[in-house]
Every structure is written in C-alpha cells, then in structure tokens.
Hints:
- The chain is 43% helix and 14% strand.
- The chain is an alpha/beta fold and 429 residues long.
- It folds into two domains: 2-190, Rossmann fold (3-Layer(aba) Sandwich), CATH 3.40.50; 210-425, NAD(P)-binding Rossmann-like Domain (Rossmann fold, 3-Layer(aba) Sandwich).
Amino acid sequence: MKLTIIGTGYVGLVTGACFAEVGHQVVCVDNDAAKVKVLQAGGIPIYEPGLEELVKKNVAAGRLSFTSSTAEGVAKSDVIFIAVPTPPQPDGSVDMSFIEKVAREIASAMTAYKIVVDKSTVPVKTGDQVAETIKRYNKAKVEFDVVSNPEFLREGFAVEDLMKPDRVVIGVRSQRPVAAMKEIYEPFNAPIIVTDINSAELIKHASNSFLALKISYINAVSVLCEAAGANVQEVAAGMGMDARIGRRFLNASLGFGGSCFPKDLSAFVKIAEQVGYDFRLLKEVQSINVEQMNRFVKKITEILWVLKDKNIGVLGLAFKQNTDDVRQSPAIELCQRLQKEGARLRVHDPKAMEKARTVLSGVTYVDDMNAVADGCDALVIATEWDEFKQLDLERARRALSHPIMFDGRNLFDAAEMEKAGWIYKSIGR
Ligand code: UGA
C-alpha cells in the first residue's frame, strides 16, 4: 500500500522503515529540512538497534523515501499517519499544536479521499478535533476518515516491537477505513482490535500509566524489602510467576523516566481532572517516583557524608538501556543533584554521551567505562545497560579511593560484591 508518515522521530521513522520492510511504499515527511537531508543521504538522526540497516535496505529497494513537503506526502498516498510530538506543557496538559498544524496542512493538500491516522500519543477526543479541523480547512470538501492507531513500541527495542507487536489497536468512527487498516497490518501477524476512537486513544494512556504504576509498585515494595531485610528481586521473581501479574516491568530502580511515562502520567491525570475525576492512584505513582530518586540520593550522602569536592563516577546517562535518548533521564537528574551538592563527576554512557553534552555540563565525559572510576570516591550505576555487567570490578576497586558502589539498577549480585570487599548499596536488597 502507499503510506505517508508525517514526523520522523522515534515513532515515525521506525514505523516508516518497518512498513517499508513488509512491502509497503512509504514516504516519510518532516518539516525539518536539515533532518530530511541527513535521512536522504543515508544518515540516521537517532540510535535505535537495527534501524540503520532497515532504512538503508528499504531506501535502496525504492520502498522508502523522505521529503520535507507535506503536500507531496499527502499527494503520494491514500493513508497518512501523523507521528509528530505531543510534548507536555507546564501544567501537565499536552501541547497539541503540532498535531493541529499537521491536520491543517493535510486538509489543505487533500484532493481525494484519504485516511488520516493518528499514531502520536494524544488525549482522548483528539480524533474528533482532528476530524473537525480537516473538515474546516479542506476547501475541496473531499471525503476522509480519521483513525486512531496508537503506537506501543519501546525505545531501544522499537524495530523488534514494531515488527512483532503484541496487538494493533485501530479506533474508527465508521467501517470504511477498517479494511485498509487491516491490510496495512496484515503482514505483521498480530491480533488486531477494532474499536471506537475514544477507546483507542484511552488504551494508550491507560497502558503507559499502568506500566508506570507497576514500576512504582515494585519500587514501593523495594522500600519494604530494605526495611525488612528481604530481596526485591526475589520478591519480583515470585510475583512475576503468577501469569496474571507477569515479571516484566517489575525491576526496582532509581525511578522511571523517558519522554513517555512522566509526560503520559501527567497528561492522564489532567485528562481525568477535565472530566471530573481525581486520579489519586496515578498521583501516588508520580510521588513514589520522586521519592525513589530522593531515597537514592540520600543513600549516597549517608555513605559519602559530604559530597562537596568528592569525585563520583557515574555509569549511564540514557533514560534506559539501548537508547541514546536522555529526555527526562533519571541518570541526568541524578548527576545534576550530585553536582548541586558540590560533587565532581566522571560520566560514561555507551550511546548517549553526545546527547547528554547538550543538557549536562561541568562533568568529565569518559570514553572507556572502565576508566570512569579513576581517582573517584565512589561509583554509581544509573542506567541498566547490559555492558555495565562486564565492568572490570577488580580494576574499579583499585582505581577508587575506597570500593564503594551505588547501584540504581541492581546489576550486580549484592552478596558477591560484599564478599569482594565493596560497600555496595542497591535498590531493595
Ligand atoms: C514506553 C512504553 O513501554 C511503550 O510501550 C510506549 O510505546 C512508549 O513508552 C511510548 O509511549 O512511546 P519507553 O519510554 O521507550 O516505552 O521505555 P520503557 O522501556 O517503558 O522504560 C521507561 C522507564 O522505566 C525507563 O526509565 C526504564 O529504565 C524504567 N523501568 C522500566 C524501570 O525502572 N523498571 C522496569 O521494570 C522497567
């Protein structure tokens, strides 16, 4: 099928590449001409495992192309996906200006029936607004349908998640676009749920909020584990074996971050408020997340006492492993908190150092993870990168003034670390 994706961020670019991979003819549109130039020249502006190969392969096969012209994108396809940002505003509500602008642009360019599909995470009832906007700004008065098709991919696993989705949600106002939507997703062999637009939009916010709730829940349990001398990983393993609960998203940590969970929680609380419901449960999820970071900083100060002029090595800057994304990263927040206390930092991340430099200054960026500990008073693990498990602990022990590690991601075995002479503080163990 001929498909256009507007917005080449994490969602849009990966969606475009995966649609092309299964044989669709895809045009990706972005209003950032410089970004389009990079993409046209074979460059990938984000780090996402497997994406570069996929883009190169499909561009070479003539199934994937890039343009900065929305009109061109609209003209070339029958189905237009919107995948532009929906950033948070200071009061927690969502900034819908990008979606609204794209809806107007699509409307002005439409000369024949189009299916306009929203993939961005949006507040419930956005579909109605998009439909109304297109109706108003389409002078030719051509027919169209609006569809909600939320995306559930995780950064760092985006290609994998898109190629093998757990489910595909299609929200519609009429049956007319259903066959085309099913045809687009047919090659992915995933269960498809067809529902009304409002429910589809709610599924996305409700899912992300529930996952965040799961993390805050295990983080709250981790506090109990520490107080009672239990091990949160054992508790999570035992809980997770109940199929109704599941083991995933039960990793206690210094808190969740990223461009989705914090934003979507605030938005969902706000949406609830607008329809007259006080979503106290989700407010608690947010507070637990703030407390978890406070508790971690306190752990560090309890052992190191005064942080002023201390040298601390920090492993991890991305908001989680397998990504270069530092938006709302707990690791960056932690670094800033330690800096505020007067600590000097040596930091490393396998992929996120370039992006971190734009938000974190006054630290020493170290290329080799094993050299981070050099001349430091303690090491901190802030992101759950698998490669950190391969850290040369013996070298780190010698390089530190005293072997002290604060592990915000429970990457090492606590008993073994203590046996090896470390003062080792982790989460919920
Ligand atoms: C999240 C959802 O998982 C995706 O399904 C959704 O499509 C996406 O938001 C979105 O709305 O676009 P993402 O933000 O990429 O995906 O990252 P996650 O893997 O969900 O991790 C979020 C944060 O939670 C990270 O900081 C991570 O380290 C933390 N986390 C995750 C934990 O602390 N413990 C866990 O057990 C799992």
